[in-house]
Specification:
The complex is a heterodimer of chains A (134) and B (288). With 134 residues, chain A is of the alpha+beta class. Chain A has two helices and seven strands; from the N terminus they run βββββββαα. Chain A folds into two domains: 83 residues, F0F1 ATP synthase delta/epsilon subunit, N-terminal (ATP Synthase, domain 1); 42 residues, Up-down Bundle (Single alpha-helices involved in coiled-coils or other helix-helix interfaces), CATH 1.20.5. Chain A has a five-stranded mixed beta barrel. In chain A, α1 packs antiparallel against α2. The longest helix of chain A is centred in the last third of the chain and has 18 residues. The model of chain A has no long low-confidence stretch (mean pLDDT 83). Chain B is an alpha/beta fold. Chain B has two domains: 54 residues, Helix Hairpins (Orthogonal Bundle), CATH 1.10.287; 221 residues, ATP synthase, F1 complex, gamma subunit (Pyruvate Kinase, Chain: A, domain 1), CATH 3.40.1380.10. Chain B contains six helices and six strands; from the N terminus they run αβαβαβαββαβα. Chain B has a five-stranded mixed sheet, sandwiched between helices. In chain B, β4 and β5 form a beta hairpin. In chain B, α1 packs antiparallel against α6. Classes of the chains: A alpha+beta (134), B alpha/beta (288).
């Protein structure tokens, strides 16, 4: 059995978002939701908009919304390169709700000229933001 | 010799210019510190990004991928990052020279995506095609802007309108050294792996989920975006550094001119006094 904790670093283009030693990490990727424990095989995964859950060694759990980027997983170290990441305190709930309503309406319309993939991602982002706050 | 009044007027004009350059220097010093901090904060991100993309490329070998293949199309899209304001020494002209004096590029093959109005105007004047103007994003570089620009460029690349994408920006080495740099963004060039890197890639057998090719589809746009954003923040730091230097030398030149003019003024004053005295003495002698 490997060590019981590993290092996590979340970097965004304009700041170091999180840095610390943690027990477990949960996040949403293109291949589905995954949890990372210490001693994971080396792997690179791509992030999908969703909630990232950080289980710190002192028993606390932190949540944040993360919208795009990728993760480099090594047995004792995980590096997340996130294009956009937000703590719950940085999210504007009214805006997120409005964005969700807008994206849902666009998906309902089924307008062939509409960029469906884009609307879908916008919807996922809004949902991620809202669920972090709940 | 110029009259006392002329010299005085000249001196006060130089003095007020000096006040302006001094103030501008102080402003750009503060801006430089902020821009430099931003550039340093974002550095970790790009280093990781670069390392990951290169390690994927090293692993995948000669894969045929739309972003890696050389194109037949000679059209080159060049993102030119300059400033919106002048008075920054050679900052803007160095970037423009990078394009106009390029050895192998033909003018008609170059399509300019301008960030910064100085570069846009200068290149348009010398006959380059300026396709898009993004000058306002240089004031406050945001990652979201870089994302939109990347999306548009990749779209024209995929549709075959352009064959290569370059980035022309000023790399920020230190407060006093800024290097005009031309960087090839697409097709992505594989770096010659140094021995040290080779060792790292050999030791860790990285898995990819999704598979490498699909991962590249998603990663390369992010890679390009991060390079453009990195270029932007470095260019802003360089711009303020260059302006600070230019204003510093302007201030010290003004200082020199003022001391020179003060000397001239004093001489003129003395000679006018001497002349007046001689006239009085001559007048007194004539009537006695």
């Amino acid at each position: 059995m490997a060590e019981s904790s590993f290092e996590l670093k979340i970097i965004t283009p304009d700041r170091v978002f999180y840095e610390g030693t943690i027990d477990m990490l949960e996040m949403n990727t293109t291949e589905g939701e995954i949890g990372v424990l210490p001693g994971h095989i080396p792997m690179t995964v791509i992030i999908k908009p969703g909630v990232v859950k950080i289980y710190e060694t002192n028993g606390e759990t932190k949540e944040a919304a993360m919208h795009a980027g990728f993760v480099e997983i090594l047995p004792d170290k995980v590096t997340v390169l996130a294009e956009i990441a937000e703590w719950p305190g940085e999210i504007d709930i009214a805006r997120a709700e409005a964005a969700r309503a807008r994206a849902e309406a666009r998906l309902q319309e089924k307008n062939p000229e509409m960029d469906m993939a884009r609307a879908e991602i916008a919807l996922l982002r809004a949902i991620a933001r809202i669920s972090v706050l709940k | 010799m110029a009259s006392m009044r002329d010299i005085k007027r000249r001196k006060s004009s130089v003095q007020s210019t000096q006040q302006i350059t001094k103030a501008m220097k102080l402003v750009s010093t503060v801006k430089l510190q902020r821009a430099r901090a931003a550039a340093e904060r974002s550095k970790t991100y790009f280093e990781h990004m670069y390392k990951t993309v290169q390690s994927i490329l090293a692993k995948t070998g000669d894969m045929k991928h739309k972003y890696l293949q050389e194109s037949e199309n000679p059209k080159k899209a060049v993102i030119v990052i300059t400033s919106n304001r002048g008075l920054a020494g050679g900052y803007n002209s160095n970037i423009i020279k990078l394009i106009t004096r390029h050895e192998t590029w033909k003018q008609e093959d170059v399509v300019v995506y301008a960030i910064g109005s100085k570069g846009r105007d200068a290149l348009a004047r010398s006959g380059y095609e300026v396709k898009e103007d993004w000058s306002d994003i240089v004031e406050e570089p945001a990652y979201a802007d870089a994302m939109v620009l990347t999306e548009r460029l990749l779209k024209s690349f995929e549709e075959g309108e352009i064959g290569e994408i370059y980035l022309a920006y000023t790399a920020f080495k230190s407060t006093v050294t800024h290097v005009p740099t031309l960087l090839k963004l697409l097709p992505v060039a594989k770096a010659e792996a140094s021995e040290e890197e080779q060792e790292v890639t050999d030791n860790v057998l990285m898995n990819f989920e999704p598979e490498e090719e699909a991962a590249l589809d998603l990663l390369i746009p992010k890679y390009i975006t991060s390079l453009i954003y990195g270029g932007l923040v470095e260019a802003v730091a360089s711009e303020n550094g260059a302006r600070m230097q230019a204003m510093d030398s302007a201030t010290s030149n003004a200082e020199e001119m003022i001391s020179d003019l003060t000397l001239k003024y004093n001489r003129a004053r003395q000679s006018s006094i001497t002349q007046e005295l001689t006239e009085i003495i001559a007048g007194a002698e004539a009537i006695s």
